[in-house]
Amino acid sequence: MAQLWGGRFTKDTDQLVYDFNASIRFDKRLLPQDIQGSIAHVKMLKKQKILSDSEGETIRAALEQILQDVRDGVLEITDSYEDVHSFVEAVLTERIGEAGKKLHTGRSRNDQVATDMKLYVREEIEQIDGLLYTLLNAVEKIIEDNTGTYMPGFTHLQKAQPVTAAHHFGAYFEMFRRDRERLADIRKRMNTCPLGAGALAGTTYPLDRAYTAELLEFDAPSANSMDAVSDRDYLLETLFALSVIQMHMSRSCEEICIWNSDDYRYVEIDDSYSTGSSIMPQKKNPDIAELIRGKTGRVYGALIQMLTTMKGLPLAYNKDMQEDKELSFDAIDTVCSCIRLYTGMLSTMCFRKDILRRAAVQGFTNATDAADYLVGKGIPFRDAHAVTGRIVLSCLEKGCAIDDLSLDEMKEFSEAFEEDIYEALKLETCADRRNTAGGPGTDAMKEMIRQNQAYLEESKC
Fold first, then answer.
1. Around Cβ 366, how many Cβ atoms within 10 Å?
2. What is the domain extent for residue 441?
3. Which residue stretches of the chain have pLDDT < 50?
4. Model-level pTM greater than 0.90?
5. Does residue 444 have a cis peptide bond before it, meaning omega lies within 30 degrees of 0?
6. C-beta atoms surrounding 66 within 10 Å
7. What CATH number is associated with residue 84?
8. How is 298-358 classified by DSSP, letter by letter?
9. Residue 280: in which H helix or E strand, if any?
10. Residue 274, SS3?
11. 7-31 pLDDT, tens digit each
12. Which of these, 200, 341, 428, 446, could form a disulfide with 316 (CB 3.0-4.6 Å)?
């Protein structure tokens, strides 16, 4: 078929070149945004008397019908068109005649696709924000249900100090809350309208770019026409934000894979989020957690690819930028599906509270509390640390825990130990007394839950 730009050419494009250059296979996803932007552009052209009222109304109605026909399956977007913009203009002209050729007045495909992508990314940011809100509610439910579920906290994958499952998942609540804030920041910064920038230098037509921006719910028109068509910062920022979201889920999924293993058995993943083995009938595999972890590299790849694409591009638009779509679509789809599955997996996961408690008792997680006890008796912390270290070494040799030692055995290391050391070394005492802001203590966790609930109420989608 004839190309929008064919007037200057005397030969048809080689078919391989055409196929390599075409983007209709993937940018047809942008049809709703392309129609939305085109209708706003037509309204502006009509307002500015560049189109007559009847022309504007005819074009608008036809554009709406094209979108509806595609959605109803009456009209198919085929590979015979170069891109979604060519498809819309060709079908429009076929249906309403010469008036359809006026749709492109005062704009280029450069500002058109830039607008389409911004509209698309803006909608997807809102969708992902909603998914994260649902996820945060699921995490908050885990927190509220597990304030008394004691477990070991880890550093270097070594048992460190006793915490609660509520406190542990409170860390993920903070991560996913920051993810929402990051997306909101991106949405605010990206909300300028490229339409009317033309190919790169604006247009001689008396466009009202502020009106177009208002119709499309942008805050303002893009300030510089060259930047408007060549800016992909918002995509880079979005891909970075998606990578961080995916990284947060991957960290949690790594823990869940470990905790679900036979050697830990801290949690049990629900059957509906597990799979079996084709050869080993006893297996119950954490495939969903593993896939979320695995797909993180896929999202990272989109970010790196986009950064690499943009790093050497001179102003203004270059065809390299066509590469932004497939990778962005895939990254967004991947993150959305992962959030949905991760939320479901968390919501149905069972905590083995007895095993978690036993694991917290073992591994000398109360060693720091033994040192703190001595500090409370007037011994300098560095000396108390050394005393406790010698106690741990002795317990390792004997194969026992610190609180298994008798008071006489304790006093061999320091006369400061009294009968109340055993109360100080209790699991509940170790965790519940840590009430500094952000800690696992009972009062600190109550305050954290209050703040989380207030945040969820204030930021309700």
1. 25
2. 359-458
3. 5
4. yes
5. no
6. 22
7. 1.10.275.10
8. HHHHHHHHHHHHHTTPPSS--GGGGGHHHHHHHHHHHHHHHHHHHHHHHHH-EE-HHHHHH
9. none
10. coil
11. 555 556 567 776 676 789 999 999 9
12. 200
Contacts of 324 (CB under 8 A, 6+ apart): 117, 232, 235, 306, 309
Question: Quick check: helix, strand or coil at residue 240?
Answer: helix
For residue 362, what are the contacts with CB-CB under 8 A and spacing of at least 6? 152, 159, 401
C-alpha closest to that of 393 among 364, 373, 425: 364
| Domains identified in the chain, total number | 3
- The single residue listed with the structure tokens 């790093």 is 311
Residues 6+ apart with CB under 8 A from 297: none
Sign of the torsion formed by the C-alpha atoms of 136, 138, 144 and 150 = negative
pLDDT in tens, 77-124: 999 999 999 999 999 999 999 999 999 999 999 999 999 999 999 999
Domain at 391, CATH number: 1.10.40.30
What values do phi and psi take at 277, rounded to 5? -105, 145
Q: What angle do CA 214, 215, 216 make, to 5 degrees?
A: 90
Q: Which amino acid is at 62?
A: A
Active-site residue set: 156, 277
CB 249 within 8 A of CB 292: yes
Pairwise CA distance, residues 178 & 451, whole Å: 14
- Among residues 62, 82, 105, the one where a domain terminates is 105
